[in-house]
Amino acid sequence: MIERIPALEHIRFVNSGTEAVMFAIKAARAFTCRPGIARIEGAYHGAYDWAETGQAVSPAMWNDPPQSLAVPAYRGMPPSVGEEVTVIRFNDIADLERRIAAAAPSLACILIDPMPSRAGLIAPEPSFFAAVEAIAKQYGILIVADEVLNLRQSYLGASARYGLHPDLIAAGKIIGGGFPVGAIGGRKEVMRVFASDSGKPLLPQGGTFSANPVSMVAGRVAMEAMTDGAFASLESLGDRIRAGLRREIERHGAAFSVTGAASLFRIHPKGKQPTDFREAYLAPGEAELMGRLSRHFLNCGILLPNGAAACLSTAMTTADGDAVISAFADFLSILEATPTEAGM
């Protein structure tokens, strides 16, 4: 991983993506001596309190001016957590600059998924990532890229694909070869917070199954199998599916759109492709429609996540991709036959 991913100079292994994000945030705190974090509205970063604050937002919580809120993720979350989290909107430079400037003295890091799945699987604007880097540098804030899902977007990872230069990366999923795994990596001077060669580390980290031999061996074999060619094949299949889904949407005149890249795609019940979490948020009728779509795919023998990214694998063939397109086309035909019920 260090050989292929530009931002990784040192790396440590844990047991899950949640742990990876948690220790990346802790590393940023230990390095900067600041407690707070900034994160993207609606994005999913696992189950660490600070990482999930601002995830469970809804239109009832949106205010005017439309400032994002550090909404608790579960009942009983300590109110103090929200005081240390600044929530910003994806691809909104003005909001980014305003919110970060106001909280900068307390911010250790900006936590960002290069293409947040739960927030819509929406591509970043190059100017937005440039603004993230500029304001982070201005205020001495670290950038933590959550690539637990999106490391799969290229041989070099998602940050490199979209021109983001993070200080730390949290990884997981594909790097374990199907076994539990997580990893934190980044600049060696930041990763020194874990070092114990000069006494007690600034940030102790360990775990019974961290870097366990089964996950390490399986992960190494999986990553060795994921060559440039393997990523290119997945990208080609993803392009084929996304193009096919869009072609069916156009053919049927349906109020749907498709986002995603590489081996990921997400179908939205919206005629206009969303550009941020609020535009991707599902109204009750849209949520019901997506539930029907997922059930239809299941009846066709395909598991389609509801409200998250659909992931392709190296085991899938062109025929499998065409089956996805065909199942979607069948669903659109069913909607056409029941226009009142579907709202079309």
Automatic annotation (TrEMBL):
Keywords: Isomerase, Pyridoxal phosphate. Its cofactor is pyridoxal 5'-phosphate. It is an enzyme of class 5 (isomerase). Gene3D superfamilies: Aspartate Aminotransferase, domain 1, Type I PLP-dependent aspartate aminotransferase-like (Major domain). GO terms for molecular function: glutamate-1-semialdehyde 2,1-aminomutase activity; pyridoxal phosphate binding; transaminase activity. It holds the Pfam family Aminotran_3. It comes from the Bacteria. Its EC number is 5.4.3.8. Belongs to the class-III pyridoxal-phosphate-dependent aminotransferase family. This is Glutamate-1-semialdehyde 2,1-aminomutase. It comes from Rhizobium fabae. The lineage of its organism: Bacteria, Pseudomonadati, Pseudomonadota, Alphaproteobacteria, Hyphomicrobiales.
